[in-house]
Amino acid sequence: MIGFDLSDEQRLLEQSVREWAAREVAPHIAEDDRQHHFDRDRILGGMARLGLLGISIPQEYGGAGMDYICLGLASEELEYVDTSLRVIMSVHGGLNCLTLLAWGTEEQKQRYLVPQAQGTRVAGYALTEPGAGSDARAIQTTAVKKGDRYILNGEKSWISLADVADNFLVIAWTDTDKKQQRDPSGLSAFIVERTFAGFSSGPMKAKWGILAGNTGWFKLDDVEVPAENLVGKPGEGFKIAMFALDQGRYTVAAGATGLIRACRDASVKYAKERHAFGVEIGQHQLVKEMIAQMESDYQAARLLWMRSGWMKNEGRRNTRETGLAKWFATVASERAAGDAVQVHGANGYSDEYPVGRFYRNCKGAVIYEGTREIHKLMQADYLLGYRTDRPTRCELPPASQ
Ligand SMILES: Cc1cc2nc3c(=O)[nH]c(=O)nc-3n(C[C@H](O)[C@H](O)[C@H](O)COP(=O)(O)OP(=O)(O)OC[C@H]3O[C@@H](n4cnc5c(N)ncnc54)[C@H](O)[C@@H]3O)c2cc1C
Fold first, then answer.
1. 369 noted as active-site residue
2. Is 364 touching ligand 1 by the criterion CB < 6 Å?
């Protein structure tokens, strides 16, 4: 059986991220959120210095070589302060770096993974398009082989770090017949650099959550991508995209767990400060009920992501368990944030207190990396025997310790 104590390394990592985020980010986050400002230097610079941008990447590829529980702990601590921080762990660390680690060629690892893990380059993940989210087979982006290059055309939307990342893992059709038939074995994955001619990006307008983070679109107009930037083999793009989601969802689950804890802590504090009917509001049983629910959700969400992290450490397939952890934690975080605003009454309805920001931020994670509905269907399909996980050609390497 397994133990529930963190190792010294895990505890130290948790403590360092908690202290850095409290000291360097928390004092500025409300203003950054108000101004829709992504503080690139403070956030990415600080995360790089702490080694977070390559936390679970082996040292031989420029990373910190920590286990996957450390990746989860960092995600939880970062989202305790603001979702925008954890999003970086999800798209750069989870969706991109871990995918390159498992599926990239040695040359791709040296060229892209090493600087990404060292924090000198930032990476994103681009599957979604204006007409295709949950239904990934409906994407329209194409990649046509011409000699030793692919010519990419298309538009990606709702891409985290679209205006910030140096390179993206882009999913596109390489087989037009299969595109017509919606056969996902016609999809392939590419590394596309921002500096490639024909690439342009911009922010999503009127976004109302994760305002201190960057979310945008990019267009690919006849972008020439060297054939050596194909990740995996032609036709493996869908498998790679799904593999990436196993890693991203893990960080989303752990992050949403941190958001529940933030809601719980803010609510406990406020319930002891605010008085109604001659007593602290914490004395009212219906307020206690909301706070108790936050604790139960926090503890259950943490156990679920830790189980996924443990399975990753062991090198076991965890698509099903990670999906459950992500679904549970994100839905619970929405409940916690709604109740945290409720506990704060009218003050919760103002950005004078952090819970309004938590309420806006939590909703994204109920939508991205598999909506609540898609995860519900997946879990039912596993139980009903309609879905099983087949081995993939490349797997995440187990943790080295
Ligand atoms: C803040 C933010 C950041 C994001 N970052 C990224 C990123 O970095 N990279 C990236 O590729 N994408 C990103 N996304 C996009 C995200 O992954 C998609 O929004 C998500 O996959 C859902 O797709 P959609 O928005 O097109 O909704 P749709 O797929 O159109 O779904 C709309 C509604 O229909 C429901 N629905 C759809 N199909 C079914 C079904 N079969 N059964 C039941 N209900 C169904 C959905 O659950 C949802 O409620 C981000 C989104 C947000 C909000």
1. yes
2. yes
Q: Is 253 in the pocket of ligand 1 (CB under 6 A)?
A: no
pLDDT digits (tens, 9 = 90+) for 306-319: 999 999 999 999 99
Rounded-to-integer distance, Cα 20 and Cα 22, Å: 6
Which of 9, 273, 369, 373 is an active site residue?
Answer: 369
CA nearest ligand 1 atom 40, residue: 374
How far is it, in rounded angstroms, from Cα 344 to Cα 337? 11
Residue 362 Cβ < 6 Å to ligand 1: no
d(CA 26, CA 76): 15
- Report yes or no on whether pTM surpasses 0.85: yes
Q: Residues 6 or more apart from 303 whose CB is under 8 A from it?
A: none
pLDDT value at residue 401 = 54
Confirm if 339 and 348 have CB atoms less than 8 A apart.
no
Name the average pLDDT for the chain.
97
Residue-wise pLDDT tens digits, 87-106: 999 999 999 999 999 999 99
- Give me the helices (H) in 8-157, please: 8-20, 26-35, 40, 46-49, 68-81, 83-88, 98-103, 106-108, 114-118
